[in-house]
User: Fold this.
Amino acid sequence: MPEYDNVMKRLGRLRPADFVQWIFPQLKPTSVSFEDREFESASHRVDTLYLIRSEKEEFYLHLEFQQIYEDYLPARMNEYAARIYNEFHLPVKTVMIFLNTSPSIRNLEELCRYEVGGIVLNEFRYSKIILPELHWKDILDLNLSVLL
Assistant:
């Protein structure tokens, strides 16, 4: 079902401000621009990347649309965030938007932690949204009719 991933990517490019407002309802960005950049690894690339500027801050919002849960997803999101930061030297907020639901998706911790001998080497926090678990009224309330 990867065709749904492509639909979501297109919608994110069509209405970037709507997606940003959904993810950051408290933020009042002065601009949101879709960054048509490719960050590729061996077989993956970033789904959607926005540069967001507000009066107080500037950062990248990385949205990753996922049909299913795969064990390596948190590590891959960590890699993307590191590569984006390395390229632009701005903070990165990653949000995984799941297009299906399952116990493994619901139970997915929003933290990717690498430890050795009880010492934390790297921690990466991200957010997740499980789209099928959102009620259509909530989607309308968030002004995201583009998803319906």
